[in-house]
């Protein structure tokens, strides 16, 4: 019998999917780790589990305690699921600019949700800093602190990357992923470089983030903005410190949207915005490297959490992002 133990037992061991349309287009094997198939619906289930279990091991979280976090949504969703499974409370601070679907889902799951204005990290009212202060005010509570809690990247060093290595029989030439906290990118990159230093590890970055300029110039200089949620940063988090970076690729919103809609209409994959950045970077990297290479990225979450935004023609038109390239292809 092969039976998983509850929600916690089903986190991880997701499939690695060949993305047919882009693989055929580039002559490379472009593979996506199907993290949207985690039980909480995103790659963040892994970090959430490691953060909570690390706190338990250290005796920082006692029965009936509270987990507090500032999140763009997916980490909060994963934390709330795991808190429900383990008998903890969950308090989530989230920028009010995040999709209504994610905020509503957090409340449905039973989290205490506090929405706050979206302000830069340097502002004391930034959602991350607010969550840290709230955690200090509560008894028997921990601050998950996903940006600087190294349990985050450890989750990907110990689970995500070894799974990819096994699924590809070690035949991987490049790895690319966007970073928010940096946990997924850094944990996997550290593992891959230990296995084979020749594997190219490339940061995928949306407009509005400073990591592309940091890799290219050594200075964090954000330019433009992006409608993608939960990725990009204006600082180097503890999870990103020391992570191997061979290069960075910047993907703008029109390119990311074309990727997302191609995934939907040609590959049958209904994906969230950050997947557009990840797969867009993988395609650009494939074109740089040439045919015959295997490139792996992350399929972070599904499009259902962004229905009212990136899958709404009216919303995209309001942002000047609608294009007829996003229409379904003719099936004649």
From TrEMBL:
GO terms for biological process: cysteine biosynthetic process from serine. Residues 10-301 form the Tryptophan synthase beta chain-like PALP domain. One of its GO terms (molecular function) is cysteine synthase activity. It comes from the Bacteria. Its EC number is 2.5.1.47. Its cofactor is pyridoxal 5'-phosphate. Keywords: Amino-acid biosynthesis, Pyridoxal phosphate, Transferase, Transit peptide. This is cysteine synthase. It is an enzyme of class 2 (transferase). Belongs to the cysteine synthase/cystathionine beta-synthase family. PANTHER family: CYSTATHIONINE BETA-SYNTHASE (PTHR10314). It comes from Vasconcelosia minhoensis LEGE 07310. InterPro entries: Cys_Synth/Cystath_Beta-Synth, P-phosphate_BS, TrpB-like_PALP, TrpB-like_PALP_sf. It catalyses: O-acetyl-L-serine + hydrogen sulfide = L-cysteine + acetate. Pathway: Amino-acid biosynthesis.
């Amino acid at each position: 019998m092969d039976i998983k133990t509850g929600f916690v037992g089903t986190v991880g061991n997701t499939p690695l999917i060949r993305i047919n349309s882009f693989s055929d287009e580039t002559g490379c094997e472009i593979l996506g780790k199907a993290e949207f198939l985690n039980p909480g619906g995103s790659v963040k289930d892994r970090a959430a589990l490691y953060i909570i279990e690390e706190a338990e091991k250290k005796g920082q979280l006692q029965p009936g305690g509270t987990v507090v976090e500032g999140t763009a949504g997916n980490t909060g969703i994963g934390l709330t699921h795991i808190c429900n499974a383990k008998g903890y409370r969950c308090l989530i601070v989230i920028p009010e600019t995040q999709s209504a679907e994610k905020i509503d889902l957090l409340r449905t799951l039973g989290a205490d949700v506090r929405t706050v204005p979206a302000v830069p990290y340097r502002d004391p009212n930034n959602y991350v800093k607010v969550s840290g202060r709230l955690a200090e005010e509560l008894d028997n509570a921990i601050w998950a602190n996903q940006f600087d809690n190294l349990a985050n990247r450890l989750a990907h060093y110990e689970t995500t990357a070894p799974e990819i290595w096994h699924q590809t029989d070690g035949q991987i030439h490049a790895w690319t992923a966007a970073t928010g906290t940096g946990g997924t990118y850094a944990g996997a990159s550290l593992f891959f470089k230990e296995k084979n230093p020749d594997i190219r590890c490339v940061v995928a970055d949306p407009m509005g983030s400073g990591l592309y300029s940091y890799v290219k110039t050594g200075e964090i200089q954000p330019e433009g903005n992006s409608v993608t949620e939960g990725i990009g940063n204006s600082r180097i988090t503890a999870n990103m410190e020391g992570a191997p970076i061979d290069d960075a690729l910047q993907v703008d919103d029109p390119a990311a949207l074309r990727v997302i809609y191609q995934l939907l209409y040609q590959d049958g994959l209904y994906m969230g915005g950050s997947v557009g950045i990840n797969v867009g970077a993988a395609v650009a990297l494939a074109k740089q490297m040439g045919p015959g290479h295997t490139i792996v990225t992350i399929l972070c979450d599904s499009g259902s959490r962004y229905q009212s935004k990136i899958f709404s023609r009216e919303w995209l038109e309001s942002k000047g992002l609608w294009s007829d390239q996003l229409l379904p292809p003719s099936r004649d």
